[in-house]
Amino acid sequence: MTQLISLGQKPAAPPDLVPIRFRDVAGDVLLTNPWGDWVFVSQAEFADLARGHLAAGSDVYTRLAERNFLRSKVDVEKVAAAMRNKKRFLDYGPNLHMFVVTLRCNETCVYCHASRAEMDAVHTDMTPELAEKCVDLALQTTSPAITIEFQGGEPLVAFDTVKHVVKYALQRNRAYGKDLGFTMVSNLSLMDDEKLKFLVEHKVQMCTSIDGPEPIHTKQRVLVGGSSYFESVKWIERINKAYIDLGLDPTLYHVEALLTTTRDALKKPREIVDTYINLGCRAIFLRPVDPFGFAEKTRAKIEYDRAEYREFYRTAVEHILDYNRRGEQVLERYAAIFLTKILQGEDPNFLDIRSPGGSAIGALAYNYDGKIFTSDEGRMMHETGDDSFVIGDVRTATYRGLMKHETVRALILASIREVQPDCVSCTYAPYCGVQPEHNHRTQGTLFGRMRESTLCSVHKGIQDFLFEKLRENDPKTVEILRRWTTVRERTHFVHASAAS
Ligand code: SF4
Q1: Distance, CA 260 to ligand 1 centroid (Å)?
Q2: What pTM was estimated for this model as a whole?
């Protein structure tokens, strides 16, 4: 049950009640208000509210008043300041700039999102001239901080381009003085000592994929002539040791690894968590498979019902919580994103779960051939024949032109969750986010039908689980969940550059 009650609607709410949304959670009723406060009431208390009864001074009255649910008690200045703070990402332009330096890749993955090319497809390498134009454009952003993320294909295949971009960006940034960072998403199998030395010296943060225990990972990510799993693990350990040798805290500085949850992975939630923890990872992102960048026939093989995913998620996070109860500090990223909004009233600016979404105004993707996309998802759809999210070319584009592009405007409108059909009356609207590219890909419309959306099903399922935990109110669990909302900045990876 989820619904929006406001004054004037039936059933009649007490006149002092602000507009609320409500949902059954663990036998009680969760109420949220438009600015993100939440409170549980019993079914009986809710029935009274729905009949318009609210006795001043009662227990439920006090709880509602404390949480800004009563008009006469709302501290408007405080609420406005909190809303301004949550939306402060709107004051900046895109800070994430994804460079597809090549489409070539030496691994073949069953779910390949990136639409890889064979290793001899050298025409899919970004030229140094185009790479410089991408850097020049990225530095035009109004954001005071930017991250250049190297993607592919496999970026280690085009390592000369990576090196060129790093050096050129550092040099050009002297004129801009932005906080500049680099990340690389790599399968690590083409790493060698020389590349590692360059990446560590130039503070390029590294991120890889681990799809679970060795048999699952190796089956899903085929590396001809070797084991994709053992190659990744070998280099994760080497890179983590390099950070320790620099005197960096290993609980904060280590290779980040991403999971893509496939059908095989669904059966192994605990083993997947164990694998990550044994590799030294302290943040596990239990991402479901995306619908982008692969053909329909592949989708039929690897897709699954999201009810199965929700079950997998619950089991895996319970297992992570158990680790925490035994003293390990490890978190799940989806949970941390939602909990930061639910418990801290802060928005961590995760681009896919914010309102409006981060397409173009939070991130841009630059393809090897110079085409610019609103997001990596838009870029992946281009590789499967859909050009809906191309917004320019680095040879001719201007920053202003990109930000004012009609596609960008449409994406902003379609990702303001407070006015989307279904989201508008969803209890979780204050914390959630919609991804118009996902709607477009799966439903053929930017404005999705959330009750049929697999992404909505994931978001709703995760928030149900988290609010159930908050309703149980076990002090140790709540303490762990609160700890997951603490952001520890990785300042080592930021090239703070004063403009000269
Ligand atoms: S995407 Fe789904 S869970 Fe999120 S606000 Fe919209 S309807 Fe609610």
Answers
A1: 22
A2: 0.93
The separation between CA 479 and the C-alpha centre of its own chain, rounded to angstroms, equals 23
- Buried b / exposed e along 371-386 (16+ C-beta atoms within 10 A): bbbbbbbbbbbbbeee
Domains, in order of start, for the chain: 2-82 (no CATH), 88-382 (3.20.20.70)
- Per-residue pLDDT averaged across 295-312, rounded? 80
Q: How far is the CA of 341 from the centre of ligand 1 (A)?
A: 15
Q: Which two tokens stand for residue 223?
A: 């590396």
Nearest CA to ligand 1 atom 1: 456
Distance, in Å, from the CA atom of 103 to the CA atom of 109, rounded to the nearest integer, reads 13
Rounded-to-integer distance, Cα 147 and Cα 337, Å:
19
Neighbours of 192 (CB within 10 A): 10
List, in sequence order, every residue forming a beta bridge with 257; answer none if it has no partner: 208
Centroid of ligand 1 to alpha carbon of 283 (angstroms) = 24
How many residues belong to the chain? 500
Q: Which residue among 432, 435, 452 is best mutated to probe the pocket of ligand 1, counting the most ligand atoms within 8 A of its Cβ?
A: 432
pLDDT tens digits, residue range 101-129? 999 998 787 777 557 788 889 999 999 99
SS3 189: coil
Other beta carbons within 10 angstroms of residue 56's beta carbon come to: 10
Helices 306-325 and 475-483 meet at what angle, rounded to 10?
100
Determine whether the shortest distance from the Cβ of 462 to ligand 1 is under 6 A: no
How far is the centre of ligand 1, averaged over its atoms, from the C-alpha of 461 (Å)?
A: 10
> Is 458 near ligand 1, meaning CB less than 6 Å away?
no
Work out the pLDDT band at 8, boundaries 50, 70, 90: very low
Mutate which of 338, 456, 466 for ligand 1? The one with the most ligand atoms within 8 Å of its CB, which is 456
Vertex 409: Cα angle to 407 and 415 (nearest 5)? 100
Q: What's the CA gap between 151 and 367, in Å, rounded?
A: 9
β-partners of residue 495 are: 180
Q: Say if CB 482 and CB 455 are below 8 A apart.
A: no
Residue identifier of the C-alpha nearest atom 2 of ligand 1 = 456
Structure tokens at 445: 């419309």
In which band, very low, low, confident or very high, does the pLDDT at 1 lie, cut at 50, 70 and 90?
Answer: very low
Give the end-to-end CA distance of the chain in Å, rounded to a whole number. Answer: 58
Residue pair 229/212 in contact by the 8 Å Cβ criterion: no
For residue 102, the SS3 value is strand
The best mutation among 354, 417, 457, 466 to test binding of ligand 1, ranked by most ligand atoms within 8 Å of the C-beta, falls on 417
Residue type, 490: R
Condensed to tens digits (0 to 9), the pLDDT of residues 196-250 reads 999 999 999 999 988 888 888 888 887 777 788 888 899 999 999 999 999 999 8
Is the beta carbon of 432 within 6 A of some atom in ligand 1? yes
